[in-house]
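Project standup — Tuesday

K.O.: blocked on the structure for the chain from last sprint. Re-posting the sequence here as requested.
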Amino acid sequence: MVLKTIYVTRHGFRGSYTINPSTGEYHTHVPSPTNIPSDPPLAAYGVQQSQELAVALAKLDPPIDYIYSSPMYRCLQTIEPTSRNLGLKTRIENGLGTADWVGKAMNRTDQQHLCNREWYGLAPFNHPSPAPPSLLKTLFPSCLDEPYESIFIPPPAGETMTQLHDRVAHTLNRVISVLDTELREQDTALLICTHAATLIAIGRVLTGLMPEDDNEEDFLAPTAGLSTFLRKEIAKAENLSDWSKGQGVSGGWICKLNGDCSHLSGGYERAWGFRDGLM
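H.V.: unblocked you, prediction finished:
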């Protein structure tokens, strides 16, 4: 059988950090278990969100069969309770991750910029790479699918808006193709834990609904929210670049739930959109 349902969530409320847009130096007041300043853990409130999210995810129908996650610590920490509860290993996929990229921030007069945003475009310097799987395995010893190798590695100096969406399209097309070929007695469901910018791109790539204005608020990305996509048909695009022409990848998908937070005691919070990333 094949993949028919994709659930997508954003990481919970995280610790903050700063970046000097002139030098690319990151600083944080909250030590990261990975020792990477741009890779903070969840705040205590985010941990609570991850636990509430896990309760909701355990009740989904169809149930989750696979978990894919960004390699960033906050995403793996968000999905860890779900991985334990469901007894599923998480596959780390860099192509579904993100970095805190700086573009227009270079023109800011203040040299320190609080990184509470999710996407900034290209930068004239390389950003810190995510922690390697070998280190993440020691931090999440029972939750990771060790044999899995990431499909795509984003460029270290960031991406344009077009490159971001094309990267997500390429990665999703490969992931869906792989899961379609894994033998199961029934149709399967996938859970992805990622970041706001990537989550929005996932919604656009799956549905093929790319707005004329990149900054349009279409797919919602609150912390620890939940979106659901159902497959329209089992097909592969003749040309992967056609996803933005209303077709979507792998036959196209319908968004049935968009940024739902009814499972969270704090409700809908800290949603991010591309307009928030404009300087």
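K.O.: great, moving the ticket to review. The CA atoms of residues 86 and 213 lie 39 Å apart. The mean pLDDT is 86.
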